[in-house]
Here is the input.
Amino acid sequence: MSEYPSGYSSHTSPASPFNFTAPVNRETSSPDHSQANLAKWTYLKFTECVFHFENSLDDDHEVGARLTSFASEVIFYLQDVGYYDPHMITFSGESKDGKKLQLVQHVSQLSVCLVALERRCEEPVRIGFELKRAAEATG
Here is the structure.
């Protein structure tokens, strides 16, 4: 039995660094965009943002996220993004001191700032390609 409830979708696994320069789709609408799959649509667009952001990073940095809707600043290494249709999106990762965290948020409250964080290992972790590939598969 999964630790996640039914209806949850997450698509990352530890990834090797990739250097892709393929253009990112910047369309703001989708043929299947509706209230029934708003979280999926938000997930698809957010994964494109992560992919594009990671392509701009040097080898000394990896993608992080700053949660901008909280009273105190929360910055963490972004490791996974998922969603629960129709309205919930999730962000999982680790804080700078190694504590695991997961944010579950309604898509109407989405406010995340992607930030470049110093890499923690020899090679920077890259999740954008895995997210983009998974999003295209579910697309």
